[in-house]
Amino acid sequence: MAISQFRSRRKRSGGRYVSFSKGKKIKNKGNLPSLTIIGEKRKLKVRIRNGGSKSRLLQVNTVNLYDPKSKKYIQAKIETVVGSPSDRNFIRRNIMTKGSVIRTDKGNARITSRPGQEGAINAVLIENK
């Protein structure tokens, strides 16, 4: 069965919405989340609407890290996920999303990019080692 981004056909009370005479449309199609984890770099190119494409990051072990003190970018190795605002189970599964706090060899950092949508992980250093 296809994943739909459309609202439910039923109301909270259990009644039906009247406007659901039409079926599923391709414009309402959704996809499963990519759930980026730590590992050897793996990307997936996905076709999106109007013939464009997105690069989904499935696995990665390095991060583009911004150091606010020196105002420079460095590449750092990801060790583990420390915190996640979206789901507490993502911490033990090492799933990285936007806003997650990761431990790198340079210190703790907060992810500022969306790895499942942009195909790269950018982070800001919040704590030096």
How would you describe the overall organization of this protein?
The chain has a single domain, classed as Structural Genomics Hypothetical 15.5 Kd Protein In mrcA-pckA Intergenic Region, Chain A (Roll). Helix content is 7%, strand content 41%. It contains two helices and nine strands. The strands form two sheets. A five-stranded mixed barrel has the order 4-5-7-8-9. The protein has a four-stranded mixed sheet with strand order 2-3-1-6.
Outline, from the CA principal axes? elongated
CATH architecture call: Roll
Give the terminus-to-terminus CA distance.
48 Å
Question: What's the CATH topology name?
Answer: Structural Genomics Hypothetical 15.5 Kd Protein In mrcA-pckA Intergenic Region, Chain A
Estimate the helix proportion, in percent: under 10%
> What's the number of extended β-strand segments?
9
- What's the total helix number? 2
> Pairing-aware structural class of the strands and helices?
mainly beta
Order of helices and strands: EEEEEHEEEHE
Biggest sheet details = 5 strands, mixed, barrel
Radius of gyration: 19 Å
What does the oligomeric state look like here? single chain
Mean pLDDT: 91
Major β-sheet strand ordering: 4-5-7-8-9
Unreliable runs: none
Count of individual domains:
1
CATH class: Alpha Beta
Q: What proportion strand?
A: 35-45%
